[in-house]
Amino acid sequence: MKSSLISFAVVAAFGAAAAPAQAETFNGPYVGVTAGWERGEIADRIETRPITGEVSRDALVLGGYAGYNVKATDQIVIGAEAGISATVDDRISATSAGRALTIDPRYSFDLSARAGYLVTDKALIYVRGGYANTRIRTTLAAASGLLSTSDNLDGMQIGGGLEYAISDRVSARAEYRYSDFGTNGGQYDRHQTLVGVSYNF
């Protein structure tokens, strides 16, 4: 009987050691997809072109991201994330020196740091901050025809949200982001309300 118990204990120990470790949702690498609403607001000028008044446009935004989380303590999570996104039907119409001007955001990417607090084992409240870049094309209806230029605008991004672990591998998030691309004395602000789904490795 004693030898049987010893044999059982040895087998159980080896079985536990061989079993894969349970994934921690908020610790390690992850990838995800995101979608939501975006509002772009532009005033004074864009690139070097002056703009009459303030113009804005609401659009659908779609994107993807990848990042890495580290549990600094049982409740504190820090990490870094990179993302890329594009908007649908997002052309902004404006007037520059009495002529029609179209501003067409092409795509954007961002690099940010995240810091969060686990209010429960499954719910993470977090803030983010970092660098953002957007590619735009401007088209001016000049006397000689349409004049188009493209440029990359650098900016800063801040935001925050809530991420919830649906399972060990899958989590869902909802967040708000604000980006500032103001250059050359102009104002270009972007507001985003996003939802996302992540797969955690």
From TrEMBL:
Keywords: Membrane, Signal. Residues 10-201 form the Outer membrane protein beta-barrel domain. GO terms for cellular component: outer membrane. It is found in: Membrane. InterPro entries: Beta-barrel_OMP, OM_autotransptr_brl_dom, OMP-like, OMP/PagP_B-barrel. Residues 1-23 form the signal peptide. It holds the Pfam family OMP_b-brl. This is Porin family protein. It comes from Sphingorhabdus contaminans.
